[in-house]
Amino acid sequence: MTRIEAAALLGVTADATGPDVQKAFLRLARRVHPDVLPNATAAQRREAAERFGALVRARGVLLDPGSAPAYGSPVAPSPSGWAPRAGDPTGPRYRAVPGRGLGNSLVVLVLLAFLLVALVTVDDALRTHAFDSPADGATPVATATP
């Protein structure tokens, strides 16, 4: 699809700005998206899906003509860090963000659990030794006041 064809499909000029292209796309997508046709037959939904797919491709051509991949082609990781989900090269793309995830959280959780166990152990040890009788077998001396 050429830039002129894409512009004609969206109803904008070939030199339209990004916000204008996006506005035109959203306006048309609200009318032709298959999900907004609740009483449509299967054939009408298929036709709406094809029209919506054409709108998506046209928006891609107008917004970034160099990076718009061919429809249905596998997606390769880009230098910006975006990559396909593991096991599904044509699926959604996710960006790995350093410092986010469960790795560091799990380490902190294990350390907190270890600290809790250590504190409970020390507390139990102090409580049991506080009420023990003397180790040499002598009877404790009562120091109660009358």
Please write out the topology:
Blueprint: H1 3-10, H2 18-32, H3 42-63, E1 82-84, E2 93-95, H4 103-130
Antiparallel strand pairs: 1-2
Helix pairs in contact: 1-3, 2-3
> How would you write the strand order of the largest sheet?
1-2
The CA-CA distance between the termini, in Å, is 103 Å
Counting DSSP H or I runs of 4 or more residues, the number of helices is 4
For the record, the CATH architecture of the domain at 3-70 stands as Orthogonal Bundle
Q: Return the average pLDDT rounded to an integer.
A: 75
How many DSSP-defined strands?
2
* Low-confidence blocks of residues: none
The main pleated sheet reads as: 2 strands, antiparallel
Give the CA-based shape. Answer: elongated
Order of helices and strands: HHHEEH
Helix content: 40-55%
The radius of gyration computed from the alpha-carbon positions, rounded to a whole number of angstroms, is 34 Å
Which CATH C-level class of the domain at 3-70 is it? Answer: Mainly Alpha
Beta strand %: under 5%
The CATH topology of the domain at 3-70 is given as Helix Hairpins
- The computed structural class is mainly alpha
